[in-house]
Amino acid sequence: MNEKKEMIKKIMKFLAKNEEAKADELCKLFLEKTKEVTPEELTDVAQQLEDENIFADAEQHINIEKRIFEIIRNKIPQRKLSEFGKGHPIKTFLDENIIIKNLNKRAEELLQEKNSFTDLYSDWALLAKQYLKLHIHYLRKENQLFPYLERRGFSHPSSIMWSLHDQIRKSAKDFNVSVNEKK
Predict the structure, then answer these.
(1) If 146 and its partner were Cys, which of 82, 109, 158, 181 is the partner (CB 3.0–4.6 Å)?
(2) Can you give the residue range of the structural domain that contains 66?
(3) Do residues 156 and 65 make contact, with C-beta atoms less than 8 angstroms apart?
(4) Are residues 89 and 39 part of one domain?
(5) Using an 8 Å Cβ cutoff, are 63 and 16 in contact?
(6) 64 burial level (CB within 10 Å; 0-12, 13-18, 19+)
(7) 20 Cβ contact list (under 8 Å, min separation 6)
(8) Which of 52, 75, 98 is the last residue of a domain?
């Protein structure tokens, strides 16, 4: 295993053991020494840790991965959407991720509005309906992408993303119920 992957693995293990200070110290060193981390390197490390069963549960695993991505996201080379042809499933997923980011941005804008919820009810109701439709995006990923990854020996991304998708679906349903109860 190369040095980058070894460092990421150690950081994640420290975080899993709640050894924040050690993880932070190693993160600083990692950021100084590392120019780039490929998605394949991250996936490989995550799969190894999944196989070693070092996480207490899926929630801890998700939280640690979120933290790792926050720390190293500037080290991951960004692929251009144009690299994937029109209709390619990855391009479709990435396009939909942009739509999801825009929904989140709209929610932030509504939260900043000075008007009352009643005045903005139609905006909130529309947003709630749009969030409910996200289940289609996640269902397609679960049925198209996850089996592809698993056939190639990568069960880790699927198990983590599935848990995250379930949380998002529940939040969307709860949000919709809350908006409609306030009507």
Answers:
(1) 158
(2) 1-75
(3) no
(4) no
(5) no
(6) buried
(7) 14
(8) 75
